[in-house]
C-alpha cells in the first residue's frame, strides 16, 4: 500500500484551532444565533404541545389555575400603569388654598378662637372678618363647599346655600356683614358680631339637604 505524502498546506493542530476560532468570530455566525424571542417561542410551543400529552389531564387543573392567576395579575398591573392607584372618593379639604383673599391654613376652630380673642378686646372689625372666615373654613372642612381660588364671600354663601337651602338668608346676611367691614370699611359693632356668631353656630349644626 502506498503511503500518503504529508500535505505541506495542511495546518497543524494549533493552527487549525486558531483558524476555527477566527471563522466562528465572523458576524454571520452571531446573526444565526437564536434570539430571546426564539427561545420564548420555543418554550410556548413546548407548553402548548405538553397540554395535549397523555399525562396532561393530571396537570390540567393546576395549569389552568396558574394561567388564570397570571392573567389576573397582568390585568391588575396594566390597570395600575394606565390609571394609577384608586383615589378616595371623598376629597380632602383644601387647607392650603386661598380663602377670601388670605392664605391662612388655620382650622375653623382656630379661627373662631382668634375671633373671640379680638371680640374680647373690642376689635369688632377683625372679629367679624375672622368669624366669617371660620364659618367658610368649617363649610370647607365639611365638604359642603369647594370654592375656586379667589371666591368672594357672596360666592361662598351662594354655594353653601345650594346644600343648606333652609339657611340662604342667614348665609347672605353673614356675607354682607363681611363685605361691609372688609371692603367698604364700615365700622362693625358688637351686635353685628353676635349675629354672625349665631349664624355660624346655626350653620355648624345644620344638616345638608338630601337630594330628592
TrEMBL record:
Residues 131-200 form the Protein-glutamine gamma-glutamyltransferase-like C-terminal domain. The keyword Transmembrane helix applies. InterPro entries: TgpA-like_C. It comes from the Bacteria. The chain crosses the membrane at residues 64-84. Keywords: Membrane, Transmembrane, Transmembrane helix. Pfam families: DUF4129. This is Protein-glutamine gamma-glutamyltransferase-like C-terminal domain-containing protein. It comes from Microbacterium ginsengiterrae.
Amino acid at each position: 500500500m502506498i503511503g500518503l505524502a504529508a500535505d505541506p498546506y495542511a495546518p497543524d493542530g494549533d493552527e487549525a484551532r486558531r483558524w476555527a476560532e477566527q471563522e466562528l468570530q465572523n458576524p454571520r455566525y452571531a446573526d444565526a444565533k437564536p434570539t430571546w424571542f426564539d427561545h420564548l417561542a420555543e418554550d410556548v410551543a413546548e407548553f402548548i404541545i405538553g397540554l395535549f400529552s397523555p399525562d396532561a389531564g393530571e396537570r390540567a387543573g393546576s395549569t389552568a389555575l396558574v394561567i388564570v392567576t397570571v392573567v389576573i395579575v397582568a390585568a391588575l398591573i396594566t390597570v395600575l400603569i394606565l390609571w394609577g392607584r384608586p383615589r378616595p372618593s371623598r376629597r380632602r379639604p383644601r387647607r392650603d388654598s386661598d380663602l377670601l383673599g388670605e392664605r391662612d391654613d388655620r382650622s375653623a376652630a382656630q379661627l373662631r378662637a382668634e375671633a373671640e380673642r379680638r371680640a374680647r378686646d373690642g376689635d369688632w372689625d377683625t372679629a367679624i372678618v375672622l368669624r366669617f372666615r371660620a364659618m367658610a373654613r368649617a363649610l370647607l372642612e365639611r365638604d359642603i363647599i369647594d370654592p375656586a381660588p379667589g371666591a368672594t364671600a357672596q360666592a361662598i354663601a351662594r354655594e353653601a346655600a345650594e346644600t343648606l337651602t333652609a339657611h340662604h338668608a342667614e348665609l347672605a346676611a353673614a356675607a354682607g356683614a363681611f363685605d361691609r367691614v372688609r371692603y367698604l370699611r364700615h365700622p362693625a359693632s358688637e351686635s353685628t358680631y353676635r349675629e354672625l356668631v349665631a349664624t355660624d353656630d346655626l350653620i355648624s349644626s345644620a344638616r345638608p339637604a338630601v337630594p330628592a
